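Morning. Coffee machine broken again, so started the prediction first thing and wrote up yesterday's gels while waiting. Chain of 345 residues, entered below exactly as on the submission form.
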Amino acid sequence: MGIILAILIFGFIVMFHEFGHFIVAKKSGIQVFDFSIGFGPSVLHWQRGETTYNIRPIPLGGFCAMGEDSAEGEKGNFNEKPVWVRMLVILAGPFFNFILAFLIGIILVGATGYDEPVIGDVMDNYPAAEAGIRPGDEIVSINGKRIHLWREITLNNAMYPGEKDDIVYERDGKRHEVTITPVKGEDGRYMMGIQARKEYYTKANVLTAIQYGYYEVKYSVRSTIDGLKMLLYRKIGIKELSGPVGIGNLVNDSYQESRSYGVKAVLMTMLSIALLISANLGVMNLLPIPALDGGRLLFLIIEAVRRKRIPPEKEGIVHLVGMALLLILMAIVMYNDITKIIAGR
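Came back before lunch.
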């Protein structure tokens, strides 16, 4: 069941992403010949107008084949449209991922509440207590970054262990500033010495569900970007990355852990994972990497600046090489995922 849920979640997110490309292309008068979820040979398809809709067996992505190869001057040719229209079509996929994550965030916050960054307890002999922080104080920002969720504090500690933090907190309507350097606790983790409230979640109304639904997306985007920074600065290696196999294993483990708490717990857990994956996919697709939406957008930006399109054959070669390198990376990540699963068992 966990694996089936993983396939359904990933398939739906990919479908929403491709639908973004599809709907903006259609509204822009661009032909869409193939709308596919998954890769490989078609196992289910139907025709409507000029578009063939396909379900394919390998649930690792999808594609929306537009009129890039239509004859020059032909109506509906993607490349005949103004560069700003093509940019909108490319941006629509990641944008729809963020929309989906936002909608999921609203549902999650409406159903479970939100984790305010309000301190429940301060541990003796730790930097927070020595700096004068007390229970009931609300963390406003860390190192200039606005804090809205308790998980953002946890994320900061995980991403920058042992590094000095400039903290702004609020008490009785007044803001105070302190500088804290987390120290290593008994469990080996770096800690400020603060703990969340026992009543972890605050109940949301309609307005706060929308507000904190946005903060949920912001948190997921920030965690993705911070992870990319750690990879770039070599604080983590490729072995720490996870792909579809790792995600499937995460979904399966999360399902097994939450099922004993009932259907609602399973649903909320799956939605949390879906939000993270959707936001992650939106960010990753905006990276200026050939074969991804960000790579195609980069070529369009260059075209807009030089007012001349890069020769299609040269652009095609770049995207082909990029796709080959991505497939190699996916193979390495998949191998690492399988190795971790086997080792865990």
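The first strand starts at residue 32 and ends at 39. Going to sketch it on the whiteboard this afternoon.
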